[in-house]
């Protein structure tokens, strides 16, 4: 399954956020190594289109797409050398497809900062440095072998050049993800470098930041072109204890129109390069997860592998057209329902019925 690994220095609010994500009440201790066991939290991707489909089709239940998060044990300076929880940290993070880095920007004299002061830039660099050092180790191990393979013509010299270019980027203190477009990522894939994974930054903020567009823009510039979100992990933990209506009121009181968890799910989903298509009937209205660029048979395969093999055609209507028409019959009458074949590339929000020969 696709997962996003949550990382960050100790005491930045990872456990608090993760508890909110899983609605678990694990004790978030004010203690550097509180988070030891990696856990997975599955979060529904908010999608108001499903409510509308359920209304149109009289569906009994709604099944949104989900995003999975893994809570990865605290990283500290020196983690790449196996200090603290280093080795376990690196093994867990290697399995995640993207990295969400939690950065503390809240002020609270009662919460110890592991580096002595709240400094988002320095915290970010500490984490980057550990990941970069781990990647450099991976490269140093791989390069002699790759060089040998090039010499005996078992491998293309371009691949070696790509790895050396990556090494130079890392030695400059840059992540592969940030340098992305300048590198031949395809040749680096086999190394599964940590800093090649897409990054999202989660600023765990207080009112002074949540209420200031200016401060947010400053922080956004710090991580650009990566995506970032701003939330208050403590508020998020409180929100999950409330009813939907109460939660909405509390968000409004805090001047926000979407919860941090919803934002995180949305941005995470996007960062993973995913999109959804929709199916609906009297039983359920459901969102299915596919990769951007997937074809209709690939999309059918997410429901059942037989549907991919036996794919004949897909009946497709865009959500907006269907919602505007108000019923499938009306959408057809308006000529909005298309028959698509094997080559069709799915669009986000396609409402689909597959025809298959099984
Ligand atoms: P972790 O070590 O990164 O997992 O951090 P925790 O989630 O355990 O949080 C460390 C401490 O900071 C706990 O006492 C939390 O209650 C507190 N904390 C977490 N998020 C916030 C926040 O947004 N604001 C404030 N004031 N405290 C927070």
UniProtKB/TrEMBL annotation:
* Highest taxon listed in the record's lineage: Bacteria
Q: Where in this chain does the record put each OBG-type G domain?
A: 2-251
Q: Which CDD domains match?
A: TGS_YchF_OLA1, YchF
Q: Name one Pfam family in it.
A: YchF-GTPase_C
- The reply on keyword Metal-binding is yes
Binding residue positions for ATP: 11-16
Which keywords has UniProt assigned to this entry? ATP-binding, Magnesium, Metal-binding, Nucleotide-binding
What this protein is reported to do is described as:
ATPase that binds to both the 70S ribosome and the 50S ribosomal subunit in a nucleotide-independent manner.
Q: Which family does the similarity line name? A: Belongs to the TRAFAC class OBG-HflX-like GTPase superfamily. OBG GTPase family. YchF/OLA1 subfamily.
HAMAP family on file = YchF_OLA1_ATPase (MF_00944)
Report what the protein is called: Ribosome-binding ATPase YchF
Which species is this UniProt entry from? Arthrobacter hankyongi
Question: Lineage of this protein's species?
Answer: Bacteria, Bacillati, Actinomycetota, Actinomycetes, Micrococcales
**Its gene?**
ychF
